[in-house]
Design brief:
The structure is a homodimer. By secondary structure, chain A is an alpha/beta fold. Chain A has helices spanning 21-28, 32-40, 47-60, 66-73, 89-104, 118-129, 145-154, 177-190, 207-222, 239-252, 264-276, 294-298, 310-326, and strands at 78-83, 108-113, 135-139, 158-161, 171-174, 196-200, 232-234, 258-261, 286-288, 305-307, 335-337, 341-343. Chain A starts with 20 loop residues before the first helix and ends in an 11-residue tail after the last strand. Chain A binds a DNA duplex through α2 and α4.
DNA sequence: ACCACCGATGATAGCGCTAACATCGCTTAA
DNA sequence: TTAAGCGATGTTAGCGCTATCATCGGTGGT
C-alpha cells in the first residue's frame, strides 16, 4: 500500500538563515561537491569555476560547517590540548608555540586544564576525544590507566610533553626533569654550596615535580650534601608560597647556604622575602629557580635558573603532529628530547675560577 | 533497467574499530535512540534500561561522537574564545574563570589568539564559527566590520569583554579602561604628583590601551598636569620594555615625579630599572602599574596599581552565556560593568593626611 | 466497557558535508 | 579511426547522531 500514499509534507530541521553549501552551489551554478573542492582542494577545480565559487561564497557569506565536514571526512583539523593550569606562564608559552604552528596550518586548538589532577585528566580525555580531534597533546607522562586505554583505542596521534619516559603512548616531546634538577644541584655544589634546601612543587599527580625532587635527592646523595629533615619542602607555585617556604626552611635551618626552588615564581617569592628580611643575595644566601621565565632574567638580582624549552615543546609537538597527519606512514622519530640548560646569574655565587 | 541490477556490494566509510551508538544499542538490547536518551536525558529513560545502557557503554568503551551529535541537534557545547595573546597572564586568569564555569557545565573551550590584530581576529571569527560553537567570546570592543557582520548573522551569543561600549554586538562584560586610567592619575595627583609620565601599551587595534591613554590625557588636562612631548610613550608588555621606557622617559624628563605604566609587567620592569640605577622608590620616583597581577602585590616595594576583575570577567561571561543558552528568552541584562579599584601600595607616596 | 492520557520506547528521516565512483568531453597514441 | 587516458564535474550514498512522530501497554476517570 505504500505506493498509494500521498507525497509527504516537507519536513526540515534546518536552522533558518544558515547558508549551506547547496546554496553556494546554486548561486555559482555548479554542484555542491564542486564547491567543496573549490574550498578544500582548489587545485582540483578549473580556475574559472573556482572564481565563480569564491564569488558566491563571498556574496552569501558562506561559512562551512566543520561538524558536517568532519563527520563526513573524519578529519576535523582540531587538536585537543590538556595542561595542568593555564595560569602558569610556562604552559602559556607552550600553547603559544602550538598556536603559532597550528594556526598557520589552519588547525584549531581545544584547550582544557586538569588542575594537576590525573583523574580530571582522564575525564577530559574522554570529553576531548568525543570531539574527534585530529590529535591530542598531554602534559606529563603519567596518566590513569583508563586514560591510556582510551587514547590507545582512539587511533589519533598522542603527544606527551614536558618530561621523558621510556615507552610513551605514542609520541613525546620534553626534557629530563630529573637530570635538570640534578644538574642544578651539581652546579651549586661546584660553586661551593653544601647545605642546599629544595622547594618542590606538589608531587601528587605531577611527574615533573616528582622527578625534579628525585634529581635533587640523587645529587644530595651523590655529592654527600647536607640531608636533614625539613631541608626540602613542598609549595604550590605562587610568590607568596615561595616566601613562606623560604621562611620555614630558614627558621628550621638557619645555616642553609642556598635554596633551589622548583620554579622561578617560587624562587622570586623567596628572593623577595630575603630582601624584606634585609638578607643579601647571594652574599647571605643563594637562590636558584627553574624554568627561566622572563622574570628570572629581569629580577634584581637576576636569578640563576634552569632554562627549559617551553615554547619549543609546543612548537615541536605541533610539527610532529602535522608531519604524522600529512604522512601517517612516516617513521620520523616519535620522541624529541629538547634538553635544558643551567643558567648562572647573580642570585648564586659564581663558580670558582680554575 | 535499474531493477535488474544485482545487489550492490556493501560499501562503507566507517573507521575500523570505532564504537558507534548502534553497537551500544545492540549490546544493551535497545534501540539507538534509547542509548542517546540514556546518555543525554537520563530522566526520560526507565532506571533499569538506563543501567543496561550504561553497562554497555562501559563495557565497549563507547565515546559519543559529538560531531554527529552537534550536527543533528545544532548544539555543540563548545565555546569559542578569542584573546590577544595567551602569554599575558591577565588573559590566562580570564580563561581560568571561563574554564571553571564552563567545565562544570560540560562545555569545551576552543581557544585562539589574535596577536592584537583585528584582521587576524576577523579571520579567527570565521574559522571559529565554522566549528558552530554554542557561543563566542571576544576580547575588546572594536572589531573589523566583516567580523561584526559574521557575528551578527551567526545567531550565536556573543560576549565582548575587557572594556565598555554603548552598543555591544550582543552581550558585554568589562570595566571602563578610560575611567580606570583617569582614576589612577587622579589618585597620583591627589598624592601630590604633578609631573606624571605614562607608558602605554601599543594602541593599534587595542581599544583597551587606547582608552587608558585617553583616560591619562583627560586627567592631565583636567588637573593641569605637566604635558610635554615624550612624557607618554608606548611599549609592548615585557619587563625589558618597561625598563627601556623608564630609561627613555627619565632621560627626556629627568624631573619626572612618577610614571604610570599601562600594566604591571611594564611597571615592574621600570621599577627594576630604577633599582639598577640606585634610585629609591617612592622617594626618588613613584611607580604605578595596572592589572594588579600577583607580582604587583609581592614586589618590593609593592606596586600601586589598578585592580581589575580578570577572573570574574571570564566567570561572568561564562555565566551569562549559560543563562542565555538555558533560556534564550531571558531578558537578563546583557551588560556587566565589573568595575575596578585603585590600590595604593608602597611604590608611590601616600595621600596627604587630612 | 471505553477512551483519553501518559510514560517508555522505537522507526524514520534528516543535519551538511565529502568519499567513492560515474560521466563527459577532449587529447593523444596506435 | 578508435580506444585509452585524463582533467573537470556530477551523482549517490553515507558519516553517527538526534528531532519528530508513531506505537504500545498500562492507568484511571466516567
Amino acid at each position: 500500500m505504500s505506493e498509494l500514499l500521498p507525497p509527504q509534507p516537507v519536513r526540515t530541521r534546518r536552522q533558518h538563515g544558515a547558508v549551506r553549501i547547496e546554496d553556494v552551489a546554486r548561486a555559482a551554478g555548479v554542484s555542491a561537491i564542486t564547491v567543496s573542492r573549490a574550498l578544500n582542494k582548489p587545485d582540483s577545480v578549473a580556475e574559472e569555476t573556482r572564481k565563480l565559487v569564491w564569488a558566491a561564497v563571498d556574496e552569501l557569506g558562506y561559512i562551512p560547517n566543520r561538524l558536517a565536514g568532519g563527520l563526513a571526512s573524519s578529519r576535523t583539523r582540531t587538536v585537543a590540548v590538556v595542561i595542568p593550569t593555564i595560569t602558569n606562564s610556562i604552559f602559556a608559552d607552550k600553547i603559544q608555540g602550538m598556536s603559532d604552528v597550528f594556526g598557520a596550518a589552519d588547525y584549531q586548538l581545544i584547550l582544557a586544564n586538569s588542575g594537576y589532577s590525573l583523574g580530571r585528566e582522564a575525564d577530559l580525555v574522554a570529553a576531548l576525544l568525543a570531539q574527534r580531534p585530529s590529535a591530542i597533546v598531554l602534559t606529563g607522562v603519567t596518566h590513569e590507566e583508563r586514560a591510556a586505554r582510551m587514547l590507545g583505542r582512539a587511533g589519533v596521534p598522542v603527544v606527551e610533553t614536558w618530561n621523558l619516559r621510556p615507552s610513551p603512548i605514542d609520541m613525546l616531546v620534553g626534557f629530563s626533569n630529573a637530570e635538570a634538577a640534578f644538574a642544578m644541584v651539581a652546579h651549586l655544589h661546584h660553586c661551593g654550596y653544601r647545605r642546599i634546601g629544595f622547594v618542590s612543587a606538589p608531587v601528587a599527580d605531577n611527574d615533573r615535580a616528582a622527578d625534579r625532587l628525585a634529581g635533587y635527592r640523587r645529587a644530595v646523595a651523590e655529592f654527600d650534601l647536607a640531608d636533614r629533615p625539613g631541608l626540602a619542602r613542598e609549595a604550590h607555585f605562587t610568590l607568596a608560597n615561595g616566601a613562606a617556604a623560604f621562611r620555614e626552611i630558614l627558621s628550621a635551618h638557619p645555616d642553609v647556604e642556598a635554596i633551589f626552588f622548583a620554579n622561578d615564581v617560587l624562587a622570586a617569592g623567596g628572593a623577595l622575602e630575603a630582601r624584606r628580611r634585609g638578607m643579601r643575595i647571594p652574599a647571605d644566601i643563594g637562590i636558584a629557580g627553574f624554568d627561566d621565565v622572563d622574570l628570572a632574567q629581569e629580577f634584581v638580582p637576576a636569578l640563576t635558573t634552569v632554562r627549559i624549552p617551553r615554547y619549543e615543546i609546543g612548537a615541536t609537538a605541533a610539527r610532529m603532529i602535522l608531519a604524522r597527519l600529512d604522512d601517517p606512514e612516516t617513521d620520523a622519530p616519535p620522541v624529541a628530547d629538547l634538553g635544558f640548560e643551567v643558567v648562572q646569574r647573580q642570585s648564586t655565587r659564581p663558580a670558582p675560577s680554575p
